[in-house]
Amino acid sequence: MTFWERNQLKLAPFLFLAPAVGLFLIFVIYPIADSIWVSFHEWSGVNRYAVDDEGNLKNFKWVGLDNYIYLFTNDDEFYVSVFNNIKWFFFSLIAIPFGILLALFLNQQILGIRWVKSFFYFPFVINAVVIGIVFTWFYNPKYGSLTYLLGFFGMEPFPILSDENYATYGIIVASLFPGIAYTMIIYITGLTAVSKDMIEAGRIDGASGFTMFWNIILPQLRPATLIAVVVTIVGALRSFDLIAVMTGGGPWGSTNVLAYKMYEDSLFNFRMGYGASTAVILFILMDIYIAWFLYRLFKRESTEK
Amino acid sequence: MFPTPIQKYSIPVNILYRVALIVTLFIWLMPLIAVMLTSIRTYDDILAGNYWGWPKDIAAIENYSAIFEDGRMARYFLNSMIITLPTVFGTLLLSSMAGFSLAMHRFKLNILLFCMFIAGNFVPFQILMIPVRGLTVDLGIYNTYYGLIIFHIAFQTGFCTFFLRNFIKELPFELIEAARADGATEWMIYRKIILPLIVPALAALGVLEFTFIWNDYFWALILSQGDGVKPVTVGLDNMRGQWVANYNLISAGSVIAALPPVIMFFLMQRHFINGLTFGAVKG
């Protein structure tokens, strides 16, 4: 027996995993640690390792918790962003009931339904730049169809995206377009797995319509709901593309979220350390959420066995 | 089946349902229909204020050739292809190997590595932004196809490994044991047994990843500069500034930018749905 044959089972995992784990460590895990490190420094983004005569880093200065302190005590935009993130978090969940409703509406077997369904899925595969462009027109006070729509009800044109108080909601609505498509796909598949026997049993017990849905169907859709909630919330906390395309954080920073603020602070105001501290806050928020999700996942795996 | 099959209702209800279906679909797709119509409008039509009606004259050929005239849109489109295809291939290769190992090999760290890949999916991009940009600059791959491709592969491998590990875990372990008893090497098991069995999963992931990478906007913004490697998402956003009020051109550009994932979706619809809803059914 050669060395390879004897030790294959021990070595194989290492060899099979090395490329994936290696890349993942370099481009995902290490950057997380590095961002946290950067967040304790003041740095404009140029020549990080440059040293002065005494051998100290001259462009990359340790400032301890200063970035965080400034963020929490001196930066109103930070609170605007957090508050907007909270709006995104809650309002994007609207996609879930809408997704269920549409899924129920489409869950019929008639000629051509497969095509109808795939047209409903459409918005999900279209990129955020296109969605953003479309909705920016839709809201355009001069000739957007929203203006026509409001005019139809005798209302004045309303420039949503240039109104500090409503712009964020305008963007969230745009995000619901692909968002609802996604949750609907999840629920349509979920509905195919609902037990026919239980529906029959429910019918015999006299359940129908909403009682049937609430007591028999919805509990069976729990795995679908878990996935739908996860993807919706992760998507909401990640929201960046639509904001960049539709308002660029404006008017007056009112549509900023942590993700966008961080991008602007780092790359346009050259405050890398400060931007990194914002990213760390976003990361922590997301982490709390990851922990909850993993906990749920493993509880499920352990009950299976 | 829930709701009650429509066939059990009267004929008027059936007709009503079908009408409602078409009306809802029309309203749902209205934004996209508007873009498609505007992409074949003349500029005069837009100046006259006809934004949402049927185009007076069809200018499809003029508009679509206009957006390709100065060559930038074609460049962006090509860039997107050059970035997306190798990324999808690389991701599937790396994650199928990793997924195979995590599913079929017992070793310390197995669960830890699995958790790492899962957790990686939830990381906000912004916490990676500064260091990844720095890394690509240091490695000399900033503003190159390689920078975007390598980063995308690294990041997407997390999701795909998670997906494939679970898929492979469902395969009968006896298959592997039998092959090992016959003296097959681990590589042969991966190549000859696992890969053929996970083709449906790879197809599902492939379509999904194609869409994700094609639609990427953030990383293209961070890791590219100038027109050389910029994909069509960022390119379209830039062109929007140049075309200003030429909504017909912006629309035509949008249609072009959205087309490949849409075509992919229609060709591989079943796989696409399987990929997206993985886990949504299994309790």
Task: Describe this structure as you would to a colleague.
- The complex is a heterodimer of chains A (305) and B (283).
- Chain A has 305 residues and is mostly helical.
- Chain A has a domain at 75-270: MetI-like (MetI-like fold).
- Chain A is 70% helix and 1% strand.
- Chain A contains 14 helices and 2 strands; from the N terminus they run H-E-E-H-H-H-H-H-H-H-H-H-H-H-H-H.
- Chain A has helices at residues 3-38, 66-74, 76-91, 95-106, 113-121, 128-139, 145-152, 167-192, 196-204, 209-220, 222-238, 241-246, 258-267, 272-304; strands at 41-42, 61-62.
- In chain A, strands 1-2 form a two-stranded antiparallel sheet.
- The two termini of chain A are 38 Å apart.
- Chain B has helices at residues 11-38, 43-47, 60-69, 72-104, 110-120, 125-138, 145-169, 173-181, 186-197, 199-214, 218-223, 232-243, 247-267, 269-276.
- The longest helix of chain B is centred in the first third of the chain and has 33 residues, at 72-104.
- Chain B starts with 10 loop residues before the first helix and ends in a 7-residue tail after the last helix.
- Chain B folds into 2 domains: 6-66, no CATH class; 67-276, MetI-like (MetI-like fold), CATH 1.10.3720.
- The relative contact order of chain B is 0.13.
- Helix content of chain B is 74%, strand content 0%.
- Chain B has 283 residues and is mainly alpha-helical.
- The model of chain B has no long low-confidence stretch (mean pLDDT 88).
